[in-house]
Design goal:
The protein is an alpha/beta fold. 39% of the residues lie in helices and 17% in strands. It is globular, with a radius of gyration of 27 Å.
Length: 640
């Protein structure tokens, strides 16, 4: 065993279980961040000489994970795995014989590569010539492969029983969202009721186990409520919330309005994470970062700009080629996204970037240890995607004294249910049907948000108008903590030195306050006194002045403020019209300015033909600044 690898207790138990139950097909279910990669490689390394395994093949769920898996194999066990896929000069993958001659122990490929061209059959032929019956196969995150779809069919073609000595399949979420079996010929499915079958792992290590063993950091969820205004068809809905929704459509519209990047909910979410990261920097942890999950590449671009305007910080956007096939974006990356993720993960000190935005790139296996916060700004509500996103945070950082991590979610009941049940066991049950549903993506995770988990934001009869954001309940260990306890805990950690060193999240402190009523009463009294004192001193508080406004603006009388803000908004509207319609005549530009004002008022939920005070014009001004920043990508005011 390599000196650099010290197996965890569960990895030792797994390898012993594997050695004593050496099945042809073995399913390891291990939660995210538990160390499935090391566990699987440990099994290979401990038995390769005993069972005369001459060649290792690993299949991973994404191209950008091949190098990461190969790097782990080398660092932990000294194994050399080829991970470059098809070699351009050869026009093919090197054969096992060629790799063995160059001191490789095997190769890493992706499910995507295996389904391209005739790669599965070509690999089968290569394996059959020199290492037939001597191949150890690891199918990483095997839930991506179903016998009914291309990934699973390619695996069955390339790795038949005559070629493979043993198959070790791993998954942190051994289930699919499309009611299909995961390689049903190789995995065990036991009947649980009529026409229903459950996937049975051969070894399990759950999230609750990892939390108890302190392999992963303490984690909690923060919910954010809000009021939402949106248009559906000709009707405009104001004052909508997640709690007063009366049907599924209203819940979807509320969620899509909440995650609209232009709205107040997203602004409050960004401020929430930014405030926490400033607190981390103050206590000597400048590398801590936030992961923002968005539904589309357009939303990623808008989120990057919104973060810049609110925090004056740059965010890294990572997208894969499969996030939006055929889409045209501004992210014409000069380098591979995998390299950018690796660079982001390695950044240290106060120069480390604090934000990373992903559409689908930060999936299983991506390791950025310094991620401490996550904002769920996507309409996806599928459990598979939710658990995988949670896993991006569950890394020990710093290793010797790991920081707790938090996820901010919209207060949508489905997302709250997922957060409450995060530690529960999830069985993969397939219910047989008379007819097959239309096929989804290979992982069954509905990443595009077209069914089950969400919906596309580009709905012809739906338009978000405005939103607000307010912290609500917090969730820890499957328990919902009421906001009165959460608010006191948030205040204590932010303002009381003795609680600023609390080693867990505010939700954990709130959970403790629920059980300790005397302590809660003391802190609540201090909180209320501080809140009342702040309210009485609001006249002396510092108000943020919009960029481009004079420093003396706050001293203006309301009438003067209104006149100034309206004038500045008019300048911005004219500037936007000039950018979008540079060749138009002055009369045409004036007409476009009127249209821009109409849209701006509608988007900010302001009356179109009534008096607007300075606060309204300030909102319009900021909205126009954001539109001007995006103007090079807009075709015209129809895109506003």
């Amino acid at each position: 065993m390599p000196l650099c690898f010290a197996p965890r207790d569960w990895q030792e138990r797994f390898v012993r279980a594997y050695q004593t139950n050496l099945k042809k097909n073995f399913l390891l279910e291990g939660c995210t961040s538990a160390g499935k990669t090391a566990g699987a490689l440990h099994a290979f390394d401990s038995l390769k000489n005993v069972l005369d395994w001459r060649f290792l093949v690993v299949v991973v769920p994404a191209e950008h994970l091949m190098r990461q898996y190969a790097q782990d194999a080398f660092n932990l066990f000294g194994l050399n795995l080829f991970c470059s896929g098809t070699v351009r000069s050869l026009g093919r993958l090197p054969t096992p014989e060629e790799l063995l001659q160059q001191d490789y122990h095997g190769l890493v490929i992706s499910y995507q590569w295996l389904t391209s061209s005739n790669n599965a059959s070509l690999l089968l032929n290569d394996l059959s010539r020199t290492v037939a019956g001597k191949v150890f196969l690891i199918l990483d995150e095997v839930h991506h492969a179903s016998s009914d779809l291309a990934f699973g069919q390619a695996c069955e073609t390339a790795f038949p029983d005559t070629i493979i000595s043993h198959r070790l399949m791993t998954s942190g979420t051994p289930f699919r969202s499309d009611n299909r079996r995961i390689l049903g010929n190789w995995l065990t499915y036991a009947p649980v009721e009529e026409n229903a079958y459950q996937c049975i792992p051969d070894f399990q290590y759950r999230l609750a186990d990892a939390l108890s063993d302190e392999i992963i950091p303490p984690f909690s969820f923060v919910t954010m409520e809000g009021e939402f205004a949106y248009r559906r068809g000709r009707a405009v809905y104001n004052g909508r919330t997640f709690t007063n929704a009366t049907n599924e459509q209203q819940l979807k519209d509320a969620l899509n309005t909440a995650i609209d990047v232009e709205g107040g909910w997203v602004q409050e979410a960004i401020v929430w994470a930014h405030t926490r990261m400033k607190r981390d920097r103050a206590k000597g942890l400048p590398e801590c970062a936030t992961y923002v999950r968005v539904p589309t590449i357009l939303a990623a671009r808008q989120m990057k700009e919104r973060i810049r305007r609110l925090t004056n910080e740059d965010a890294l956007v990572v997208v894969s080629r499969d996030d939006e096939p055929g889409s045209i974006t501004n992210f014409q990356l000069g380098r591979d996204s995998s390299e950018q993720i690796e660079q982001f993960a390695a950044e240290t000190g106060y120069s480390a970037r604090s934000w990373i935005i992903g559409v689908g790139m930060l999936g299983e296996g991506v390791s950025i240890k310094r991620l401490k916060y996550r904002i769920h700004a996507t309409n996806i509500r599928a459990i598979l995607s939710f658990m995988q996103d949670l896993g991006r945070l569950l890394r020990r950082f710093p290793e010797d004294n790991p920081e707790p991590v938090e996820t901010l979610i919209p207060a949508h009941p489905d997302l709250i249910d997922l957060a409450v049940s995060a530690l529960n066991e999830i069985a993969h049950v397939v219910r047989e049907r008379e007819e097959n549903d239309s096929s989804q993506d290979e992982s069954g995770s509905n990443e595009a948000g077209n069914s089950q988990g969400g919906q596309q934001l580009t709905l012809s009869n739906f338009m978000p108008i405005s939103s607000t954001g307010e912290l609500g309940k917090q969730i820890v260990d499957g328990e919902e903590i009421e906001s009165e306890y959460a608010n006191v805990a948030e205040w204590a950690i932010a303002n009381k030195p003795i609680w600023q060193i609390f080693p867990r999240t505010p939700a954990h402190l709130a959970q403790m306050l629920v059980e300790d009523k005397p302590l809660f009463d003391i802190l609540r009294k201090e909180y209320e006194e501080a809140f009342n004192q702040t309210s009485s001193n609001q006249g002396s508080s510092v108000t943020v002045i919009l960029q481009g406004f004079p420093s003396e603006y706050n001293g203006y009388l309301p009438t003067k403020k209104t006149a100034f803000a309206r004038r500045e908004a008019n300048k911005k509207a004219y500037r936007l019209a000039c950018i979008l319609y540079g060749s138009a005549s002055e009369d045409e530009k004036k007409e476009k300015v009127k249209q821009i004002h109409t849209i701006a008022k509608s988007r900010n939920c302001l009356p179109s033909n009534s008096f607007i005070a300075h606060e309204g014009w300030e909102r319009i001004y900021q909205w126009l600044c954001d539109r001007i920043a995006e103007a090079p990508t807009l075709k015209g005011i129809e895109d506003l």
